[in-house]
Amino acid sequence: MTERTRRKSMKRIGFHDREKELKEFTNILDSEPSLITFVYGPINSGKTALVNHLISRQLPEEYAPFYINLRGRFITGYEDFLNVLFEIDEGGVIDNISEYAASILKDLKIVSGIPIPLNLFEQIFEKKDKSKDMFRYIERFFMEISEKRVPVLIIDELQVIGDMKIDGLLIYKLFNFFVRLTKELHLAHIFVITSDSLFLEQVYSEAMLEGRCRYLLVDDFDYETTATFLGGHGFTGAENALAWEYCGGKPVCLVELVNAKQSSGSIVEMSERMLNEEVSRLIFMMARNRERKNDIVETLSIFDSVEETKYSDSMDLDLLSFLVKQNILFLDPVERTIKPQSQLSLLAIRGVLKDV
Ligand SMILES: Nc1ncnc2c1ncn2[C@@H]1O[C@H](COP(=O)(O)OP(=O)(O)OP(=O)(O)O)[C@@H](O)[C@H]1O
Ligand SMILES: [Mg+2]
After folding, report:
1. What is the pLDDT of residues 201-216, one digit of tens each?
2. Is the distance from CB of 29 to CB of 152 less than 8 angstroms?
3. How far apart are CA 64 and CA 111, in angstroms?
4. Which residues pair with 204 in a beta bridge?
């Protein structure tokens, strides 16, 4: 069988229902917008998949979603960021935002930015204080949209701007605008998604968001969901147990195992291979950061005996932040718990620390 025919014969792995999390989203959407929602969770826990499923399949007609994914977008500064918020519409000169919003609603596709006519975008970009005018445009646009539908603005992969260390001012201005759209005007639902929960915590304190936002956790699948997901793909009880031992409920990892099974590969081999990759990643990370190795080992050795721990102020926040950025640890800013990003990370940590 060629690679191509093998791929063709492979069953597409559909979205596995996440009833609990979807219910949490719907509850928020059902009420008047009043808080910004921070959607957070470990890497590859299925945040993006969940939100995409929600807006493409489950969102009733009365909502108008605007989904912006910052991953892979070229952002080096403030202007780039503002640019990314918009999807420029080159369809002729338009000055009347009200008519423009009505035309957008007639045929609303899932857009990757807030639609703006090119001429208005250019006008704003010539201005000195661009953010003021851009925010004013978004507010006007949403006002018009809200005559017919409830705008839902989703910013995914927020950590992209955290990695750039954009000055606090951008974050401050942006989130204050979001507070205006939610708490003050009750105009739009705002969801901000990221796996870098420490960055989220920083945004929370820098933009002074106490009482203005709520957190929604999208974690890896729990045991039951994992078993149902795998069962749906023909896994036996023993295969389920093996998958849970290696992958926990990490969707991306489970998908790999399902693919292995579908192509008559070995689930054990695939599990070992994924673990080996994780071990290598950890070893090279430590090698690249030799000067911090002792501290890294000391922090990670906590997970020798437990799967998660509580944050305490004796911990070196700088080091924790580093390990979060390296995608080794995940910190839940609400519960203040710390755990490895995945079951594979946990196994890798335990394996590697035995040998140092
Ligand atoms: N509910 C689901 N059903 C089936 N597969 C899923 C589900 N959720 C996630 N996956 C699989 O896991 C992969 C990773 O999920 P996704 O990209 O949504 O994670 P994420 O939390 O957004 O990751 P990141 O932290 O990198 O932003 C998806 O490409 C998909 O294959
Ligand atoms: Mg994502």
Report:
1. 888 887 788 889 999 9
2. yes
3. 10
4. none
CA 64-66-67 angle, to 5 degrees, is 140
Each residue's pLDDT tens digit, 221-248: 999 999 999 999 999 999 999 999 999 9
Q: Which tens digits make up the pLDDT trace of 140-191?
A: 999 999 999 999 999 999 888 876 655 667 778 889 999 999 999 999 999 9
**Atom number, ligand 1, closest to the C-alpha of residue 71:** 27
pTM, entire model: 0.92
Q: Tell me the best of 51, 199, 255, 262 to mutate to test the pocket of ligand 1, counting ligand atoms within 8 Å of each CB and taking the most.
A: 255
- CATH class for the domain made up of 277-356: mainly alpha
Which atom of ligand 1 is nearest the CA belonging to 45?
Answer: 21
Question: In the numeric block, which tokens belong to residue 142?
Answer: 């949403």
Q: Cα dihedral sign for 120, 176, 169, 39?
A: negative
Protein residues with CB under 6 Å of any ligand 1 atom? 13, 15-16, 18, 41, 43-49, 157, 195, 251-252, 255
List residues, by chain if needed, whose CB lies under 5 Å from ion ligand 2.
47-48
Q: Is the distance from CB of 117 to CB of 94 less than 8 angstroms?
A: yes
Q: Please identify every stretch of the chain with a pLDDT value under 70, giving residue numbers as ranges.
A: 1-11, 163-168
SS3 state of residue 247: helix
Question: Rounded to the nearest 5°, which phi and psi values hold at 103?
Answer: -70, -35
| Nearest atom within ligand 1 for CA of residue 41 | 21
Residue 66 to residue 64: CA distance in whole angstroms: 7
CA of 250 to the centre of ligand 1 (A): 8
CATH class of this structure's domain 19-217: alpha beta
